[in-house]
Write a structure and sequence with these properties.
Layout: H1 11-17, E1 35-36, E2 43-44, H2 79-84, H3 88-92, H4 94-101, E3 109-110, E4 125-126, H5 133-139, H6 142-145, H7 176-183, H8 199-223, H9 233-239, H10 251-271, E5 278-287, E6 293-301, H11 328-337, H12 358-365, E7 371-374, H13 398-403, H14 405-408, H15 411-421, E8 437-440, E9 445-448, H16 462-465, E10 467-468, E11 471-472, H17 476-483, H18 490-499, H19 505-518, H20 524-535, H21 537-549
Antiparallel strand pairs: 1-2, 3-4, 5-6, 5-7, 8-9, 10-11
């Protein structure tokens, strides 16, 4: 590939492209998909660049992992076939034409009931794919399943494919996910039938994602015993290049643009602060029955900006349909995109349930997050000394497992160890350590953050944890009691007092046993010593009768 074909887009060029006027002055236009990957010429939007790198150049890594994934260039198909792929009638029936030549059958149950009506076509499967090892092997030879998309017999994914990295690297395997993510990108001056396959392309994407998931399940199975819309101007302009295709024929574009809009909208809420200062945010992605994505966003707002009175809600929430005359664009968005007809018993075929569709397949193949939280949450290990869980393979020698310090390391043990060599965190409790340090999971190590706090004394061993005010307690529980971290058991004391007037001693013993088993009693021994006389009444009464008879 000659280097003259490569074209990078600078920030100034991006601004020029995104300056197109829309009917809505508040619409954020992200420009056109004209940037080119430095490595294998994949086209991408400027706002999908790797933001951590230089702002003077647009770098991208979703397509080939920074050049590590390299596949053979597709050969140009015959002109007669190119002409067919530009005809609406052919694309409307392309799945039927493909089945006439396919040498294998599709493994999933296809639900066509969704496509009865005027909505856009969606290829949808329900239930399990039912793929086995043999089917997976056949799927790796794409021409057998999709002869119209791979007319030159191009090979599919194989477990023999390797990344273009140094041979010294221990993990050079090209995964299914990497393979399909590479395939799903348009590339500069390269023609491919795959991305122009319309409804057949939808099937291929669902097939690819199902294969990825099956491959992951197979790994777990075989290693189990060894482990213990149109308002988006970017989509409209992009589809103008392919006059025979509709937006639903390119679910990859919908997924990529939606992901870009999602990131921009979240950034807008944080930087422009329409609701106030955002302290943290969380979102989750869901896919409707027709496959289109939407996301649920939760924001944590700083206390001074929080809504404190019901009258303030009107400034943020509206349940009215916008005026079609004064706000025509907003009215159109709400009525066409946020409202639907009857569902449930009134319309049992209403599209509101979730299935596997090509839009979700594209989302997951690109490894876009379905759940996101900021700030990140670090789980801190809690265990007694030498009582942590260790995962090892069944063929490992126990001596090597016990001597493996890396496997035994946890956030707790490394916190104690780090306090012996780094005095900067002595002023922090274990639960607060994350504020000044971050946990490197791949290295099992705490790394110091930049901080201006003054150090003080901290725990350096398990004995230090049990030492309160210079006194070493025998148990962690007694140390927690000294600190007032445990309850006083008054609720359990009161529970027994409430029932003692009518319950028998047997009932009381049963109640106390249930408390021990299922309740969090801070000091069971003390509770027993306070209440045991109530438990003995039956025994004492029986003993008195026996003594009197004798």
């Amino acid at each position: 590939m000659p280097s003259s074909r490569k074209k990078r887009q600078t920030p100034n060029e991006h601004i020029a492209l995104s300056s197109s006027q829309t009917t809505n002055s508040l619409y954020i236009d992200n420009g056109d998909c004209t940037c080119v990957c430095d490595h294998w010429y994949a086209l991408f939007w400027y706002d999908k660049r790797v933001s951590a790198m230089s702002s003077n150049q647009a770098h991208y890594n979703h397509c080939c992992k920074n050049g590590q994934v390299k596949l053979l260039i597709s050969r140009i198909p015959p002109l007669s076939l190119v002409t067919l792929f530009d005809q609406f009638q052919f694309l409307a029936n392309i799945r039927a034409y493909n089945n006439m030549f396919a040498m294998t059958s599709f493994g999933g149950k296809v639900d066509e009931s969704l496509n009865i009506g005027s909505g856009p076509y969606v290829f949808k499967i329900e239930g399990l794919m039912g793929l086995n090892e043999q089917t997976l092997y056949i799927l790796c030879t794409c021409p057998l399943q999709y002869p119209l998309l791979f007319i030159h017999g191009e090979s599919g994914w194989s477990n023999k494919l390797r990344l273009t990295v140094d041979e010294q690297e221990t993990d050079r395997k090209m995964t299914m996910n990497m393979f399909y993510s590479y395939q799903l990108h348009n590339r500069l001056n390269m023609y491919t039938l795959l991305l122009r396959g319309g409804r057949l392309f939808q099937q291929y994407m669902v097939d690819a994602y199902a294969s990825i998931e099956q491959d992951r399940l197979n790994y777990l199975r075989y290693n189990q015993n060894a482990l213990r819309n149109e308002f988006l101007q970017e989509i409209v302009r992009y589809m103008d290049r392919f006059h025979a295709l509709k937006a639903e024929d390119r679910p990859v574009v919908i997924a990529r643009v939606f992901h870009m809009k999602l990131l921009f909208f979240t950034k807008f809420l944080k930087t422009q602060k329409p609701f106030g200062k955002v302290l943290a945010d969380l979102y989750t992605i869901e896919f409707q029955k027709r496959g289109l994505p939407h996301y649920h966003l939760l924001l944590w707002i700083d206390h001074p900006d929080k809504i404190k009175d019901a009258s303030q809600l009107e400034a943020y929430i509206s349940t009215e349909i916008p005026d079609p005359i004064t706000k025509p664009v907003l009215y159109r968005i709400v009525t066409e995109s946020m409202m639907h007809g009857p569902c449930g018993i009134a319309n049992s075929k209403a599209p509101y349930s979730r299935f596997i569709c090509p839009h979700e397949a594209a989302w997951r193949i690109f490894n876009f997050l379905t759940h996101y939280r900021n700030r990140p949450v670090q789980v801190l290990a809690i265990h007694l000394e030498n009582m942590k869980h260790i995962t090892f393979r069944d063929n490992e020698q126990l001596e090597s497992v016990v001597s493996n310090e890396y496997a035994k390391a946890t956030t707790l043990t490394k916190w104690l160890a780090n306090n012996n060599i780094d005095a900067n965190g002595h002023h922090l409790r274990y639960i607060d350590y994350i504020s000044d340090y971050r946990w490197l999971n791949n290295r099992k190590h705490w790394k110091h953050r930049v901080t201006e706090r003054t150090p003080a004394v901290g725990c350096r061993s398990f004995e230090d944890i049990k030492t309160i005010g210079g006194e070493l307690f025998l148990t962690f529980q007694s140390a927690c009691e000294k600190l007032g971290l445990l309850g006083d058991d008054n609720e359990w004391f009161n529970a027994i007092e409430e029932v003692v007037a009518w319950a028998t001693a047997t009932d009381l013993i049963s109640l106390f046993t249930h408390m021990l088993l299922f309740c969090e009693i801070s000091n069971p021994k003390r509770l027993f010593e306070q209440q045991w006389k109530k438990f003995e009444s039956d025994a004492s009464y029986t003993q008195h009768i026996v003594n009197d008879e004798n």
